[in-house]
Design a protein that fits this description.
This protein has one domain: HUPs (Rossmann fold, 3-Layer(aba) Sandwich). Helix content is 50%, strand content 10%. It has a five-stranded parallel beta sheet, sandwiched between helices. Helix 2 packs parallel to helix 3 and helix 5 runs parallel beside helix 6. It starts with 5 loop residues before the first helix and ends with a helix. The mean pLDDT is 95. The structure holds iron/sulfur cluster. Iron/sulfur cluster binds next to helix 5 and helix 8.
Length: 216
């Protein structure tokens, strides 16, 4: 199947925006480092609010660490870029979240378990955006090299049909050096970089990586 150039699509969407008023956009974000470049890309065009619904993250200490790191970055972002971005937090419930992912427990990252994980979080966030009158919704997840941008955009397009009012903003934030800029910003702001995607299924692999990194 031919791949869609979602980066190009995002530029076309920006071009078509009204020039007299910034539309509102609810942005699903999973951590500070992944939010860096997407916020610089979106904030000149949208009035952005972050939605932090990431019950996939395990254990809870890690969840709160990522949330706090995101908040820390938003302070720097306000100081250096002049945009104030609020965060809406949902209840953390990893146990329930994992129930329908368990059947894919043994899978490597990047398969059905992950597609379901993208969908669960985007579905909740899209629903919130739709119910609360946001003009647009999107997610930072396409910044990640490990995540399938084709799938993320395809799932979100279907969610737009399901919810109807809020418009999905297509993205491929990693493209056109987005991923390099995100990396530079992470280093510049000294943000905590997690060593695994988030769930308990990848947690052990993250620990192993950390042990190798620090020679434990
Ligand atoms: S690897 Fe990441 S995207 Fe995949 S199920 Fe785990 S947390 Fe979700």
């Amino acid at each position: 199947m031919n791949k869609i150039n979602y980066y190009k699509k995002s530029l076309e969407e920006l071009e078509a925006l009204p020039k007299d008023k910034k539309p509102s956009l609810l942005l699903h974000a999973c951590c500070g480092p992944c939010s860096t470049f997407p916020l610089t890309f979106l904030c000149p065009h949208f009035d952005v609010t972050i939605f932090f619904n990431n019950s996939n993250i395990y254990p809870s200490e890690e969840y709160f660490r990522r949330l706090n790191e995101l908040k820390k970055f938003l302070e720097f972002f306000k100081r250096d870029y002049g945009y104030e971005v609020k965060v809406i937090e949902t209840k953390y419930d990893n146990e329930n979240y994992n129930k329908d992912l368990e059947k894919f427990a043994d899978q490597d990252e990047g398969k059905e378990r992950c597609f379901l994980c993208y969908e669960k979080r985007m579905d909740q966030a899209f629903n919130f955006a739709n119910e609360n009158g946001y003009d647009f919704f999107t997610t930072v997840m396409t910044i990640s090299r490990q995540k399938n941008s084709q799938k993320i955009n395809e799932i979100a397009r279907k969610l737009q049909e399901k919810y109807g009012k809020t418009h999905y903003f297509f993205s491929d934030f990693k493209k056109n050096k987005g991923i390099d800029i995100a990396r530079e910003m992470r280093i510049h702001y000294d943000l905590y970089q997690q060593l695994y995607c988030g769930c308990k299924f990848t947690y052990e692999k993250g620990l192993k990586k950390e042990a190798e990194k620090y020679g434990k």
